[in-house]
Structure formats: C-alpha cells, structure tokens
Specification:
Order of helices and strands: EEEHEHEHEHEEEEHHE
Number of strands: 11
Number of helices: 6
Largest sheet: 7 strands, mixed
Distance between the termini: 28 Å
Helix content: 25-40%
Oligomer: single chain
Strand content: 25-35%
Radius of gyration: 17 Å
Mean pLDDT: 91
Structural class: alpha/beta
Length: 229
C-alpha cells in the first residue's frame, strides 16, 4: 500500500442532483462569498493531487449552469457531468457506472457541503487505504431527544458514540461497486454510502473533521463564512 496519497488513483463523485425544495432554488448555484456553493467542493478535490478525475451528478435543469462554471475552471483533471437519478442511490449508481479500470478509490461527496478542505480529504483517504472504507464525520455534542408525531419529547438519547455523518466518504473502488450492486439487487434505499457498505456487511471507519462541514439546506445557511482552502 502506498504511503503517498498522490500515488493513488482516486475518482471523486460529487452528488448534486437534489431538488432543493426547502431552499426554493438550486442551492448548488447560490452565491457563497465570491463563488457558488458547488465550486468550493470542485476546487477542494481539484487541489488534491491524487484525484485523477471528477464526476459531477446534477439535475437536468442545472446542467447548463454547471457547464458554464466548469468551462472557466483551469485544470488538467477530467470533469464529467451526468444527470442524476430519482434518488441519491440512483444518482451515485450512475456515477459508479462511469468509473474507469484505473480507479483504485472512490470519494463520494455532497455538492451542498462546501466547507470541505483538501486536508480532510487526505485524512479520509489515508484511513480508507488502511481499512477499505472511511467517512468524514463529527461527534454529536448537542443533547439529543426523541419526540412523537406531535413533537412532544418522549425519550432522551445518549450522545455517547453518536456521530453526525458528513462527506467525503471514500472506499476501495471494488468494495463500493459490490455494495451498490448488493443494495440495488435487494431494493434497499440508503441516504449515504456508509449505509450501503454496512448493508453489504463491511465496516466503515469515521475520521473526525476538525472543521464543521454541514450540508446547506436552508437560505440562512448561506450566511456562514465561506471556506478557505
């Protein structure tokens, strides 16, 4: 196993095919500082020498906007755009279908998480190289309560051992392809790739992100300070 991440051949799949109904507009193209939301993720992976190419999954309606953005980015890395499916699982599956034979690891990232930094991508990759599967996350520090359908608290939940999942989630290429083949065959829906690999019966290690990297969901999320790589 290489100790130098730059020697690995990593494909980044950036998932951005959601409907953004809670935002009222496509959050990936919202302005955050001097860039759009999705540009921060694109640039973070471009800055990683071990990333050989990027696959961006986007809605049909947003394709032309993304093409205009990418046309202005100077990079020697290949960037492919594909249209997403009806679910996250289907969108990621479409990205996995484009992987080439040289791919050794796949880094799957939410395009709506712009606060990702290259250093964290490197840390997650190094963990994935050791264990086969790794994901970025943060331990939960808030008090957690379970409520009923009327929003009445019915139970306190210990936050010990609880983690908020983030991205990227990085896997050996063959492992994530096998996991996705398994969940598709079984008809299992997942909200992230860690769940797919867990359903396949394989463990995933979590790498703590020192820099909070939430998914942009509501308009007020755009008021946060833009990331600096």
């Amino acid at each position: 196993m290489s100790e130098n991440p730059s020697e690995e051949n990593v494909t980044s799949i950036i998932v951005g095919g959601g409907s953004s109904t809670r935002m009222g507009f496509d959050k990936l193209f919202a302005q955050l500082g001097n860039q759009t939301v999705i540009e921060y993720s694109i640039h973070a992976f471009i800055e990683c020498s071990f990333v050989s190419n990027l696959i961006i999954v986007i809605s049909e309606e947003s394709r032309k906007k993304l093409e205009a953005i990418i046309s202005k980015i100077k990079t020697d890395k290949g960037i492919s755009i594909i249209e997403g499916g009806t679910t996250r699982k289907n969108s990621v599956a479409k990205g996995l279908n484009l992987l080439n034979d040289k791919c050794s690891y796949v880094a799957i990232h939410d395009g709506a998480r712009p606060w990702i930094k290259p250093n964290q991508i490197i840390k997650v990759l190094e963990c994935a190289k050791e264990h086969g599967a790794a994901a970025s996350g943060r331990p939960i520090t808030d008090t957690i309560k379970k409520c009923n359908e009327d929003s009445t608290v019915i139970e306190s939940i210990s936050r010990e051992f609880l983690w908020a999942m983030e991205t990227p989630q990085i896997f050996r290429c063959q492992l994530i392809k096998e996991a996705y083949d398994f969940i598709i065959k079984k008809g299992i829906e997942v909200t992230d790739e860690v769940s797919a690999v867990n359903h396949y019966g394989k463990p995933v290690k979590i790498v703590q992100d020192e820099w909070k990297n939430p998914k942009i969901t509501f308009p007020e999320d755009l008021n946060s300070t833009p990331p600096s790589h």
